[in-house]
Automatic annotation (TrEMBL):
Segments passing through the bilayer: 6-24
Key words, A-Z: Chaperone, Membrane, Mitochondrion, Mitochondrion inner membrane, Transmembrane, Transmembrane helix
Membrane topology category: Single-pass membrane protein
Entry similarity comment: Belongs to the CBP4 family.
One Gene Ontology cellular component: mitochondrial inner membrane
Reported function: Essential for the assembly of ubiquinol-cytochrome c reductase. It has a direct effect on the correct occurrence of the Rieske protein, core 4, core 5 and apocytochrome b.
Claim: Zinc is one of the keywords in the record: no
Keyword Glycoprotein: no
Primary site of residence: mitochondrion
Protein's name in the database: Cytochrome b mRNA-processing protein 4
Pfam families, sorted: CBP4 (PF07960)
Subcellular location: Mitochondrion inner membrane
């Protein structure tokens, strides 16, 4: 049977993974740093896209609240899936 140095292999793998993670943390900017480095015209585009996304999310949430019935008035039997019906005849 082959004698493989598992402990040394595990130590090297953990070391390389830790080094990669630290290198990533040191070199990748945060979202705030990236936004601050942007040119003013690109910032305006990003802000417009963000505002549009938030408006769409608010509209979708409003539409959901209008279409969804209040939870106090919902009959529990209408929520159950058809396959969960115990009264079906086989």
């Amino acid at each position: 049977m082959s004698h493989f140095p598992w402990l040394r292999f595990a130590g090297a793998a953990i070391t390389f993974t830790g080094f990669g993670y630290l290198l990533m943390k040191a070199t990748v900017p945060t979202e705030e740093e990236l936004y601050n480095r942007m040119a003013p015209d690109i910032r305006k585009k990003v802000d417009a896209a963000r505002a549009l996304r938030l408006a769409r999310e608010a509209e979708m949430k409003q539409q959901f609240t209008v279409q969804a019935p209040p939870t106090t008035l919902v009959d529990p039997d209408t929520i159950k899936p058809i396959w969960a019906d115990t009264n079906s005849k086989k």
